[in-house]
Design brief:
Blueprint: H1 2-12, H2 19-29, H3 35-45, H4 50-58, H5 67-86
Helix pairs in contact: 1-2
Length: 96
């Protein structure tokens, strides 16, 4: 996964995405270098445009939590906060 991040970083700054450059980025970041993974990544990127890959990933819908669950969670949180406010302070807190 780190090699993908390195390739994206190189792409972002306009660098050439090669095995050597990806390895340099990973080494500079202190990440573990897996030459087999880097080779597979570079081979997979041949003949593709990273911009197209990024655009296609950006169109994948994200599943949202059901509205009922979100409302219930907010209700429970509000009830818990109200309970905490109702409690009388004890100890040194009762002096204020």
């Amino acid at each position: 996964m780190e090699s993908i991040y390195a390739a994206l970083l190189l792409h972002k700054v306009g660098g050439k995405i090669t095995e050597t450059n990806v390895e340099k980025v990973l080494t500079a970041a202190g990440a573990k270098v897996d030459k087999t993974e880097i080779s597979k990544l570079i081979a997979g990127l041949k003949g593709t445009k990273i911009e197209d890959i990024i655009k296609s990933v950006g169109t994948i819908p994200v599943a949202a939590a059901p509205a009922g669950e979100a409302k219930e969670a907010k209700k429970e949180k509000k009830e818990k906060e109200e309970e905490e406010e109702e409690e009388e302070p004890t100890g040194i807190g009762s002096l204020f």
